[in-house]
Amino acid sequence: MLTLHVLGTSSAKPAKDRSVSGSFLNAPGGPLLIDCGEGMQQRIAGHDRWLRSIGSNERTRISKIRAIFLTHGHLDHCWGLLPMLHSMDKDSRTSRLEIHGPTSNAALDWVKENPGDIPSEDSGVHPGDLAIQFDWWKKHGGNGAFNFEIDWILHPVDEIGLEGIMIPNQNEIEIHAYVTDHGIPSLAYCFSTPELPGRFDTKAARLDGHDEEMIRTMASDAQNPGGYRGPIRSSRSILISGDTTRNVPSFSRLNSQIDVLVHESTFDDSLEKEAASYGHSTARDAATVASQMNARMLCLTHFSSRFQEVSHLEEEARSVHSNSYALEDGDRISIDSDGTIRLERKQSESWHLIREVQES
Ligand SMILES: [Zn+2]
């Protein structure tokens, strides 16, 4: 089961009822964070309080986060990180934390030669590159200032081919990163559960007269003695685009492997030119990408704060990909091992189901 709590759906600055980027993924093995815009630790804690108040057995606890994946170094995606680390420390965290992000080899070389400095415009290195920011954060509170160890892990995008890279992780999932197109080193992350054996039909085995011990033996044997298992349950995956134009060559290779695509949708049709020149996508761009990769559901996020409401972006996307939804802050997207996708929205005291998609 993968469950993504989307805790920020605005682009460069917060808007009414929308914070900047950040999502909390409950995955097998422990929770992960994708992007960390300003105020993220408060958003996660507030969401957790709400979950507790409705009696949910699911939680979003900052203390449990095992790793953080930053899509790129623009501040609306990462400026909540240092305060979040500070909060973790105040909460007496002792367990190690991994922080991943993209960079370039040029930026890595630059930091080695100019530690603690900011690159000038003619240096050829983007001042927002995460190699620069990691260097600063380590100095200003990230290195030795906390009671827990941090692994700062940078992935040079120049070394990542079309097939992306697999990121080793302590969770029971696979994590892949793909280079996106945003004018600064940037990555999309895909989180996939492993393929599982089919469900064992205990009822059918009992009806056939097997005793409980024999049923237990058969149920624990992946070779499927007795033939009581259903079909193998496929890997399930959710891909989070970060900021990007629609021109991501890696994405076209992912045909039919993605259940949910969470894609940025900063602009609408009327701002197509702006989308291309600022390294962003329109809702239609996002839906075109979702169709190309045969994603079963498209969830739009990262809306320009100029939009008071975003239903027209949803409509523009749906003209290309019928299962397209504009996200709101607090939305929950879940994919279970049988392939059922649910998009749910917070109501006062419960989740409201927006859409359920069964495996066809
Ligand atoms: Zn950006």
Shape call: globular
DSSP helix fraction: 10-25%
Query: Radius of gyration in whole Å, from Cα?
Result: 21 Å
Number of helices: 10
Structural class: alpha/beta
Bound molecules: zinc ion
Q: Could you name the CATH topology of the largest domain?
A: Metallo-beta-lactamase, Chain A
Biggest beta-sheet profile: 9 strands, mixed
> How large is the share of residues in beta strands?
15-25%
Number of strands: 16
Summed up:
The chain has helices spanning 40-53, 75-78, 81-90, 105-113, 130-142, 202-207, 212-219, 272-277, 283-292, 311-318; strands at 2-6, 23-27, 30-34, 67-69, 97-103, 150-156, 165-166, 174-179, 187-192, 237-240, 260-264, 297-301, 324-326, 332-335, 341-346, 351-357. The protein folds into two domains: 2-195 and 327-357, Metallo-beta-lactamase, Chain A (4-Layer Sandwich), CATH 3.60.15; 197-232, no CATH class.
